[in-house]
Amino acid sequence: MVGTGSLGCVIVSVDGSDESMNALRWAVDNLKLRSKDGDPDSGGRFVILHVQSPPSIAAGLNPGGIPFGGPSDVEVPAFTAAIEAHQRRITEAILKHALQICSEKKVNNIKTQVVIGDPKEKICEAVDDLPADLLVMGSRAFGPIKRMFLGSVSNYCSNHANCPVMIVKNSS
User: Fold this and answer.
1) I need a labelling partner for 154 at 20 to 30 A (CA). Which of 26, 51, 80, 170 fits?
2) Distance between CA 102 and CA 43 in Å, rounded?
3) Tell me, what DSSP letter sits at residue 73?
């Protein structure tokens, strides 16, 4: 068990990957949160944070303009709505899995939060907004070329989050 029980808010960022779920398992197994002292709001809590990409990024493409000379910058509402509905289903499945892990570990001081945007920026914003005493993340272990193009969310957060960051690597 890590810590002296002084952690009030621990954010665990999950994206559905095995690495992020392993980080959640590590956090609930190893971190000791502040006790409640008789006041239900004074105890520590884990915040399971999921960041959705904006629908335009999630699509990876625009369905294109209206054929035969229509405007090319018109957003197709049905296309956007379908992507948003798909993202909601994915988010629900990710949070359900994360909450199942917590339930199996008999951890009930859990809050979930979903935000939309760039994961690097939104995770750091959540650290400031809550505020968090610790950020726990999984490491996807991209190779150097993939990391160069995609960037590393955990690397960015370790350099920009205003709290300590624990990056949990997979135990292989």
Assistant:
1) 80
2) 17
3) S
